């Protein structure tokens, strides 16, 4: 066996191992996780209260809603789309749950099913507009965001509606374990199974990578496009339940702006806005990273105005990194 060393490159049995390229690939694939670890170390040094058990649970609760929305968003972005309606879908779904329970007297379990179906319905409308009307997903979901938000205000007449005990369970703590965190983990596992171990998950990657090649290979592009938005709508509805459970009511303005955090979590987690690339584990890390940034800035008494600036810069960096990565891959 011959070993030749030149710089950072070793040749072993005619196989070249480039340490620099290996490290570069690892950082590119796990940049968000590395950033999260470094940030946690810095915050632990600057603010000892950060690593307390109570605060760690608080970070998890803060991340839960964003992560659930982002899991659904991952399906859409992997398929080369984008869903701007997830925050509004979470609001309309939770409002329908609260309204059917408080005003129609339906059992709590049935109202939750109706809420999930509502999320799927609004997602399906966005998917059909994208697939059959050929509307860009940005436009289709922007319109759906306005429709869903308006219907939320119509149903509620602009006022909160109290929720039942079963809905409130989604925001409760059982034996010291916050249910929002449990819900986030369950939805993350479901999302990972769908994306990694099902035919529709493989179709998402294929359609996002090359839509025309997917069509020619027999994949139903329209079916895939509609399915990813239905899944995004269902995940948004679950996030709406968590929001309503924590507040013990459905709020007309719930979820406002959450779509940006969801998209940011997916991109920070390593997904490409061009489609064909993304992982649920990366999205989870991205959502936790955003929650840690906000939590850390709060502990350090940084103004909420400056927090928005920091989050915006993080999003800009993540998108820029994705753009540079795609240019490099093209070469």
From TrEMBL:
Listed InterPro entries: ABC_transp_permease
Alphabetically ordered keywords of this record: Cell inner membrane, Cell membrane, Membrane, Transmembrane, Transmembrane helix, Transport
Membrane topology: Multi-pass membrane protein
Molecular function as annotated in GO: transmembrane transporter activity
Superkingdom to which the source organism belongs: Bacteria
Membrane spanning stretches: 31-50, 84-102, 108-128, 135-155, 175-195, 226-244, 305-324
Location within or outside the cell: Cell membrane
Presence of keyword Flavoprotein: no
Record GO cellular component, one term: plasma membrane
Keyword Hydrolase: no
Pfam families: BPD_transp_2
PANTHER family named in the record: ABC TRANSPORTER PERMEASE PROTEIN YPHD-RELATED (PTHR32196:SF21), ABC TRANSPORTER PERMEASE PROTEIN YPHD-RELATED-RELATED (PTHR32196)
Protein's name in the database: Ribose ABC transporter, permease protein RbsC
UniProt organism field: Bifidobacterium bombi DSM 19703
Organism ancestry: Bacteria, Bacillati, Actinomycetota, Actinomycetes, Bifidobacteriales
